[in-house]
Design brief:
303 residues; alpha/beta; Rossmann fold; 5-stranded parallel β-sheet; 4-stranded parallel β-sheet; 9 strands; binds phosphoric acid mono(formamide)ester; binds norvaline
Length: 303
């Protein structure tokens, strides 16, 4: 495995290895122990869109591992002035040991991966967000002591995070229910892929029914980066597709409430749900650091 572009690039075995390594790295960091296996290695971080968690956790992660990260705003490098993705990938491969990229079009990542001789990691595209989902699986494992045999309920937009979650649920063996307004269902390509991977997937527009006996309730923004022009319509269409106390009440008593963040209290999630006892959102955010360090060690150091 050279790149991590889609969640489907990972086998169950890969996911297990990454989560075990991430847990070990997390434990060692809490004891102040240093794992600097990426000494003298450099990571390029191309960003076409905003980021708090992804940018900071990758930069800190590389630093923790003894390496160096270079933030490359897409507008500041020549790609912003028309240099091709292919040439950029070839040039960066002569300097760096890995590239992460947050892009509007998933195709850009595919081209980067095909033309770079170094690992390329998806830091979010319009189609997927696999690094987020690895941190989420680590969080689920910490709270539930397992990553399979659960009911995972996605509430809201059938977007990039949802696509990667559907694939992940299929790979690890979790039932996945996607609840979204009509017209916002996940891309058919990902529905087919999820089923091909053996996923048990239901798509519905009835939040209360779907949330019954959920082990995990997960949501994301109603207006993703790139969807801003549709904001007004989306806010109307998504009304009623909120994770709140009503949904928590019909879920399992030990349900965990997840959100990849950034969150909008009162829209996709109520303040009571995100700030209440079931919420694990800040553990998810922290686990971005540990899970991505495991990915970096696997891809850049072959661990
Ligand atoms: N969840 C996530 O990817 O956050 P950022 O957009 O802040 O990186
Ligand atoms: N779906 C969101 C995720 C942000 C981390 C977006 O693409 O903007």
């Amino acid at each position: 495995m050279k790149d991590l572009i889609s969640m489907a690039d990972l086998s169950l075995e890969d996911i297990r290895e990454i989560l075990d390594l991430a847990a070990e790295i997390k434990e060692k960091r809490s004891q102040g122990k240093i794992i600097d296996h990426l000494r003298n290695k450099s990571l390029g971080m191309i960003f076409e869109k905003s980021s708090t968690r992804t940018r900071v956790s990758f930069e800190v992660g590389m630093n923790d591992l003894g390496g160096h990260a270079i933030y490359l705003n897409a507008n500041d490098i020549q790609i912003g002035r028309g240099e091709t993705v292919e040439d950029t990938a070839k040039v960066l491969s002569r300097y760096l040991h890995g590239i992460i990229a947050r892009v509007y079009s998933h195709e850009t990542l595919v081209k980067l991966g095909a033309n770079a001789s170094i690992p390329v990691i998806n830091a979010l595209s319009d189609e997927e967000h696999p690094c987020q989902i690895l941190a989420d699986l680590l969080t689920i494992k910490e709270y539930k002591n397992r990553i399979s045999d659960m009911k995972f309920v996605w509430v809201g937009d059938g977007n990039n995070v949802c696509n990667s979650i559907m694939l992940a649920c299929a790979i690890v063996g979790m039932e996945i229910v996607v609840v979204c307004p009509k017209g916002y269902e996940p891309d058919e390509k990902y529905v087919i892929k999820t089923k091909e991977l053996g996923g048990v997937l239901t798509i519905t527009d009835k939040p209360l029914e779907a949330a019954k006996n959920a082990d995990v309730l997960y949501t994301d923004v109603w207006v993703s980066m790139g969807d801003e022009a549709e904001e007004e319509k989306r806010l109307k269409d998504f009304a009623g597709f909120q994770i709140n106390e009503e949904l928590i009440a019909v879920s399992k008593p030990d349900v965990i409430v997840m959100h990849c963040l950034p969150a909008h209290r009162g829209l996709e999630i109520s303040a009571g749900a995100i700030d209440g006892p079931h919420s694990v959102v800040f553990d998810q955010a922290e686990n971005r650091l540990h899970a991505q360090k495991a990915v970096l060690l696997k891809l850049l150091a072959g661990e």
